[in-house]
Design a protein that fits this description.
globular; two-stranded antiparallel ribbon; mainly alpha
């Protein structure tokens, strides 16, 4: 019966999206209620999934009762549960924030329908055990996100959404081509079965080409340099809740998670793949932060920092050591928290001051103390200042690089963190400190639900380091690391759990 929790993560958001599309326009506030309740239910279910996998190990749901590899399976191991908790925690707080923020837009029910479809796609990518279904869920999330970037229907939003759609389609083509070639080589789409076939047949030349296609395709979804060009336009153009979702969890579930799952558990990590991921991670980390520091559009600045911070995650995972993977996954969670908070802060500022230009701000702490205070917490967290959560994950990644005899990567990680601090000190100085800017006398603090979401995220930024405590880590982080370090034995675990 425990296995029945797995499809809930797709059924709830899809069902809620359908109901919102039917009654959201007719019954006022129904979209808000259904959106918040659906995401709250998913968050509670994700906590249960963490506890279940920590206790029982891997869970398998056989769709249509067909045994793998013939039937489609949904798989929940510790890495799955870790990602589900990360995604659905952020989604719940963003849905809460949207209750007030989205009042400025018409057709609020359209927003929640697309938001829930995007969430269903992300959850589907995480739980599926079938590589073609991974592509299907990825496309559901991607198409919904294209529409949400264009939600404001202004020229800037439409242009950014079109650019995002074109580049996203190119990435999807690379992924689909790779899946087709894998099927031709292994005659199966079940990820566990693919892992077993590759162990028997060996990689072959075609699999190296497939690996390159996956790095390009999923790297584009993750916005790794040099596949990042869509992100600096898409994130600033979207409504603040969607910017937070795109940067906080979408690029991780569709990009980083897929890379980690496929290269560790299906294809198998080797030195060549490790070197490629480390290089792309370091390149993104450094290029993103240098592109960010000169920006004065607040949301564009945050968008470039998303590229930089995702570089830390990929560097940690690419090191392919238990400590590196721990640092990468922990930073994935931490970045989801503090970057979502920063985008929500930017949304609150734009909501109240009607500008994203740092040069037109100043002294907002006087009028918006909650937004200013939570923004300071998030700025310290992303910059790696103790005792905030980002400090611990960055430190682990730096130590892991030194331990793996990669001191150059450790140096670039430390340097990028220093430049990140400089960038966010600029944000605090221009936006929140100093004298109140001209025309900002009537600015008011954000409404209640927006403040509540920001305060909860700030609280996690401050106390997130406690996740490294052994009592918590052994149920949350450590099993997730173990799920990747088991490598292609993932396939045997799936069939064993399925009863074969």
């Amino acid at each position: 019966m425990a296995n029945n929790i797995i499809p809930v993560f797709v059924i709830i958001p899809l069902g809620a999206a359908f109901v919102v599309s039917l009654i959201g326009k007719r019954i006022k506030k129904s979209a808000d209620v259904l959106g918040v309740l659906a995401t709250l239910g998913l968050f509670i279910a994700s906590i249960a999934s963490v506890l279940k996998t920590a206790e029982a190990g891997m869970l398998i749901y056989k769709v249509g009762v067909w045994m793998p590899p013939i039937g489609i399976t949904m798989v929940m191991d510790s890495l799955t549960a870790f990602m589900l908790l990360t995604v659905n925690l952020v989604a719940f707080l963003i849905a809460l924030y949207s209750v007030d923020y989205m009042e400025r837009f018409t057709s609020k029910w359209n927003f929640y329908t697309l938001f829930l479809l995007m969430l269903a796609g992300m959850n589907g990518v995480i739980i599926t055990g079938d590589i073609f279904n991974l592509f299907v869920f990825l496309e559901i999330a991607s198409v919904a996100s294209y529409a949400l970037v264009a939600f404001g229907t202004e020229r800037e939003e439409l242009e950014a959404a079109f650019k995002y759609m074109v580049m996203g389609t190119v990435g999807s083509f690379f992924i689909l081509l790779g899946i087709a070639l894998i099927y031709g080589y292994t005659s199966t789409l079940n990820m566990a079965d693919i892992a077993g076939v590759l162990l028997d047949k060996g990689m072959g030349r075609i699999m190296f080409f497939v690996s390159v296609l996956f790095i390009m395709g999923f790297g584009l979804k993750a916005a790794l340099v040099p596949f990042h060009a869509w992100l600096p336009d898409a994130h600033p153009s979207a409504p603040a809740p969607i910017s937070a979702m795109l940067s906080g969890v979408l690029i991780k579930s569709l990009g980083v998670y897929a890379i980690a799952r496929i290269f560790y558990n299906v294809i198998g990590m080797n030195r060549e793949f490790s070197n490629i991921l480390m290089f792309l991670g370091a390149l993104s980390m450094v290029a993103g932060v240098f592109l960010a520091i000169g920006q004065f559009d607040l949301k564009r600045l945050l968008a470039y920092h998303s590229i930089s911070q995702i570089g830390y995650v990929v560097l940690g995972i690419g090191l392919a050591t238990p400590l590196g993977i721990l640092g990468g996954l922990f930073h994935l969670f931490n970045h989801s928290i503090f970057k979502s908070l920063l985008f929500l802060n930017s949304g609150a500022v734009e909501y109240a001051a009607e500008t994203r230009d740092l040069n037109k701000m100043g002294g907002l702490n006087e009028r918006m103390p909650v937004t200013g205070g939570t923004s300071l917490f998030a700025s310290m967290a992303i910059s790696g200042i103790p005792p905030f959560n980002g400090f611990f994950s960055k430190l682990i990644i730096i130590f892991a690089a030194v331990q793996a005899d990669r001191p150059v990567y450790a140096f670039w990680a430390a340097l990028a963190s220093v430049i990140t601090l400089a960038s966010f000190m600029k944000v605090q100085k221009f936006a929140f400190f100093g004298k109140l800017g001209d025309g900002l006398k009537r600015v008011k603090e954000a409404p209640l639900f927006m403040k509540a979401a920001m305060v909860v995220l700030a609280f996690i930024c401050l106390f997130g380091g406690l996740l490294l405590q052994p009592a918590i880590s052994k149920k949350f982080l450590s099993p997730s690391v173990e799920a990747l370090t088991t490598g292609t034995d993932y396939g045997n675990n799936v069939f064993r759990s399925a009863g074969k």
